[in-house]
Amino acid sequence: VITGKTRLFGITADPIEHVRAPQVFNPVFAERGFDAVLVPFHVAPDGLEALMDGFRRIRNLGGFVVTVPHKLRTAELCDEVGPAGRLIGSVNAVRRDPDGRLIGEMFDGKGFVAGLEQAGYDLRGRDVLLAGAGGAGRAIAFAVAEAGARRLTIANRTASRAEELARAVLRATPGVEVLAGPADPAGHDLVINATSLGLKPNDPLPIDAGRLEPATAVAEIIMEPETTALLVAAQERGCPIFYGRPMLACQVDLIADFIGVPKKARGASL
Ligand SMILES: NC(=O)c1ccc[n+]([C@@H]2O[C@H](COP(=O)([O-])OP(=O)(O)OC[C@H]3O[C@@H](n4cnc5c(N)ncnc54)[C@H](OP(=O)(O)O)[C@@H]3O)[C@@H](O)[C@H]2O)c1
User: Among all residues, which ones are annotated catalytic?
Assistant: First the structure.
């Protein structure tokens, strides 16, 4: 039951009907024995500033998740933004500190890396090909470099975006060799699809799968379908594969920790 002691959390989006954070986070609160509720806030871009001012004043608000189209503007409106959010220029979670300050951070990239780690894949020293330099690709590029990859090649349909991203990642992690290049998987240890190709049944493959070698691992970030055409092609060549879902699952834990959900409430029987 919701009482006067229940802590409040939210998700901001426009439209709102499709968001999954309430179904995902409320069971986590329950599992951790945490007296809290996460509800959807439907706000248009022109109302975001006023909403965030309101959030600063709501003293029992713990924080909120941010999704399309608010990730960029929310980063600008926060009182402070964490290191990944600053590099990427957008946030997908905001914590409200007891003094009312709003602290934002981006967890897309960290979630992806945590998903690989959980599956036993260590990025240190790896030669990585990343297809896609959109919102998710950007976050993943910084996180993969940060996680210790040796070399990162970024391929994107709009080449200028790949080049700009490669320069930004190189500035942030000077020890990593970062370059823009073709979507040719030959010779790489790991190929990541961070494009939206694979969502639709007739999409072309994001990389030249004919040049995939069996030793190259292939990671997807698309969640639906679970097994994309790229993963099918990779499996046919005997490549290890990683599905898209863990990226989101790992983010839930990271965001829960960030917005102040206790690991396990004291005295809760789990
Ligand atoms: N698993 C997760 O937790 C998770 C999290 C976030 C996103 N995702 C998934 O990641 C995908 C990308 O999301 P996003 O937010 O990064 O989208 P986005 O910002 O719109 O970026 C889309 C990317 O796909 C490329 N692209 C789109 N259509 C293409 C085409 N016909 N041919 C070649 N390249 C094409 C774009 O290239 P240009 O730059 O040339 O347009 C860009 O690199 C989506 O499928 C989304 O569902 C998954």
Answer: 71
Q: What is the pLDDT of residues 96-119, one digit of tens each?
A: 999 999 999 999 999 999 999 999
Strand residues in the chain grouped as ranges (E):
7-13, 36-42, 61-66, 80-81, 93-96, 102-105, 127-131, 151-155, 177-180, 190-193, 217-220, 241-242
Its pTM stands at 0.90
Q: Which of 142, 164, 196, 197 to mutate to test the pocket of ligand 1 (most atoms within 8 A of CB)?
A: 196
- Residue nearest atom 43 in ligand 1 by C-alpha distance: 132
**90 CA → ligand 1 middle, Å:** 16
Q: 198 CA distance to ligand 1 centroid (A)?
A: 10
| DSSP SS3 for 14 | coil
Q: Which amino acid is at 184?
A: D
- What residue owns the CA closest to ligand 1's atom 4? 221
The C-alpha R_g of the chain, in whole angstroms, comes to 19
Number of continuous H segments (helices) and E segments (strands) in the chain: 9, 12
Pocket of ligand 1 (CB under 6 A): 108, 132-137, 156-158, 161, 194-197, 199, 221-223, 244, 247-248
Q: How far is the CA of 8 from the centre of ligand 1 (A)?
A: 32
- Taking only the tens place, the pLDDT of each residue in 204-225 is 999 999 999 999 999 999 999 9
